Leucyl aminopeptidase
Amino acid sequence: MKTKQIDKLENFSGTVLIPVFETNAKSIVPIQFEGLEISSKVFYGKKDTSYLAENNNITYLFIGLGKVIDYKALKTIARRISAKEKESFGKNVALFVPEEFNTDQVEATVSGLLLGTYNLGHFKKVDEHPFLNPDFELEILSSKDYSATINKAIKIARAQLQTLELVDLPPNKVTPKYLANWAQDKGDKYGFEVNVLGLEACQIEGLGAFLAVGKGSENEPQFVIMTYTPKEDVPNLKHVGLVGKGITFDTGGLNIKTAGMVHMKCDMAGGAAVFGAMQLIADLQLPVKVTAIVPCAENAVDAKAFLPSDVIHSYNGTSIEIIDTDAEGRLVLADGISYLIKNYKPEYIVDIATLTGSSVGTLGYECGALFTNNETISKKLQEAGDSVGERLWQLPLWDVYKQDIESDIADVKNYSGKPVAGAISAAKFLEYFTNEHAAWAHLDVAGVAFGDDEFAKSKHATAYGVHLLTKFIENL
């Protein structure tokens, strides 16, 4: 989507989008814009309302914001208008930027408008959104120069659109090899290095926990390593490591799922968030070095699948007793984290995964679960999440929970077997593989990466984590 800044609507014909803060239902002063007056009896800016008016070959779409509005709500409103009012859009569309708007509000609005072009019907014949026409240019009506903010907003939405597609496409399309190819294509386009370890390379490296998970699938596992380095020299360059769970489909393995399997294409949403974040970080040219690993595999069922009670060995040599083959995400993350620490030694590490139903039971669908023993990292992640509407809430990592992963036959076991504290015991399992790293955090996003909202009839991706991870890195 291209944009052009204008300072007046002279000779304009088309649709003008006008965000309006709430006045009062009984106000005697009408909302006025370009000589048009809207009585408060019909519209006064109440949140989630809109009003359509026409005058002199211009369609005016007034958008209610309420009295105050946060980043996420504003972005959602803009996305709604873009998705559901597109029939009102002609060849020319202008966005009026209110004087009260700050740069974050401009960013949220433009980003939301572009996100509204997303359509879940990837295999249906659908009309293309007007904003996606190569000749389309959104005109920004403002007396201030917001070009840098708008450019950033478009890059954010572009990365999130890619992430939505990766998660929503079916598992016969998005295989581990598909994700590896995606990373290589985007690395070439946006400027980050990609190294992919296939089956034989992973065997040579000794990525035993990762390989165990993929044994039952005909789709070869792919261990994707991405590295972004700023083009310019940066004094005291910080180095961040990311790890994302890339399970392209999760049957549960031999501990086969008895419910909800139809949605398990979403089990790579953590990995997709890392992919999207890498695209965005490189697109924004952030002055931070980032190394990201996404272990991509399919947890399937056949004669070669790993078994409950197997003992396997991880990359760092830890022996793991398999209690439940459906606790596979923590196994691929364990090898990803160990490999990252040994070979790249980042100062900060964040892993992200749709890991446990327990996190959903604890926090519902409003925020992700955060685990870390580093209070500075905790604060920065929560602040980043709050600022872009991707919230996190910290849960404990107390040593008393270590008993949940103790095994009689191996160093650790992959599942406690208990119906309680599942998200915490999974986090304790991952902590075991961090080599006591001083700045590691684990994000369990099972409740927020895939779900229901107004933009589709079925459950679908949210792109949670792309902006959060990027904002966190940007603010270090």
